[in-house]
From TrEMBL:
Protein's recorded name: MarR family transcriptional regulator
InterPro entries linked to this entry: HTH_MarR-typ, MarR/SlyA-like, WH-like_DNA-bd_sf, WH_DNA-bd_sf
Pfam families referenced in this protein's UniProt entry, alphabetically: MarR
Transmembrane portions of the chain: none
Ranges where the HTH marR-type domain occurs: 17-152
Matches recorded under SUPFAM superfamilies: Winged helix' DNA-binding domain (SSF46785)
Top-level taxon: Bacteria
Organism annotation: Phytohabitans aurantiacus
Region (Disordered): 60-80
Length: 153
C-alpha cells in the first residue's frame, strides 16, 4: 500500500515559485563553483577552508569532531574521513578528547594556520567577486532576512 499522495493532490509549484526555486539553485551553484575554483588555486577545498577557519576561531585552535561536524552540517563519519585527508597533508592533527574517551579533538597545526593565512585573502577576494560586489546593500539585507527565515524550523 502506497503512502504517496495522489499526483493531483500534490501542491505543485506555481510558475513564479518554480522560477524562484530554480534561480536560487543557479545562484548556489554559480557562487559555490566560483569560490571553490578560486580556493583550489591556493591548494584548498571549500570544506578544508571551513574546517581551518572555524578551528582558527576556537580557543587553542581546537574543536571536538562532533562540534565541528555539527557546525558544518556533516555527519561525524564524513568529517572524520575528511579530517584524515587533512591530517595526512599536515593541516590538522587529532588528539584524544579527555571529556569523551570515544571522541577526538581536531587541532589546527602551524602548517594549517599558514595555509589558512595564505588562502584567506584569495578567499575574500573570491567571495567579493562572485557574490558581494554583484549585490546592493539592500540585496544583502534581503538575503540575510531570507536566511534567518529559512533557518527557523
Amino acid at each position: 500500500m502506497s503512502t504517496k499522495p495522489p499526483v493531483e493532490a500534490v501542491p505543485w509549484l506555481k510558475p513564479d515559485e518554480e522560477r524562484a526555486w530554480r534561480a536560487f539553485l543557479r545562484i548556489m551553484v554559480a557562487v559555490q563553483a566560483g569560490t571553490a575554483r578560486d580556493l583550489a588555486t591556493v591548494g584548498l577545498s571549500e570544506p578544508d577552508y571551513e574546517v581551518l577557519s572555524t578551528l582558527s576561531e576556537r580557543p587553542a585552535h581546537t574543536s571536538t569532531l562532533g562540534e565541528q561536524a555539527d557546525k558544518m552540517g556533516w555527519s561525524r563519519s564524513r568529517l572524520s574521513r575528511h579530517a584524515t585527508r587533512m591530517e595526512t597533508r599536515g593541516l590538522l592533527r587529532r588528539a584524544p578528547d579527555p571529556a569523551d574517551g570515544r571522541g577526538c579533538l581536531l587541532v589546527l597545526t602551524e602548517q594549517g594556520l599558514d595555509a589558512l593565512e595564505n588562502a584567506a585573502p584569495a578567499h575574500v577576494e573570491s567571495v567579493r567577486h562572485h557574490f558581494i560586489d554583484r549585490l546592493t546593500p539592500s540585496d544583502l539585507a534581503a538575503i540575510e532576512r531570507i536566511a534567518r527565515r529559512l533557518e527557523q524550523p
